[in-house]
ATP-dependent zinc protease domain-containing protein
Amino acid sequence: MADGDEIRKQLAFLAAETDLPARFGIPTDAFLPLFFSLRFGGDWSYRAESIATVSVVKKTTVYDGERGLGHTREEINLLVNPVLRRRDGTVHRLEKCGEEPERLLVQRPYRVAVSAERIIRMTVHPLEKEIRTEELDAGEIIFEGQAAYGIDHELEHLSEAKISGENLWEFRFV
């Protein structure tokens, strides 16, 4: 059971988290993808009548081989009313969607350019134990690799497209 100090820390965290949507003038429910990425990891999407949002996580690991110490910084980008502008390259990869019972072999772009009405970036620094949240001036952002796969997947959800690919049992053991 949590002691009084732990409960105070949890309440302070929740209060700061709850204040974020108002700080940026975005409806609370539209912030859910960002909150889910922070709490549960991964990329998320949300759609309501007048707003659609996608969160995409970009992870960067910094490692000092001499000291044998590193950390992985996370940038969680919340895109408000995102629009896919460009897809470059093709990567074949296994992917699991919550709706599917197993992973599928899918094709995703290596790089995507996405425009958005607003882009909110949350930077999570594990060594400093700080979470910084800011609005970017950019109206377009480019993602590569894992972040590109994630946003492409979430944009399919927003467009209500079915995630499709080849079944895992199409593979053969050698």
The longest strand covers residues 52-64.
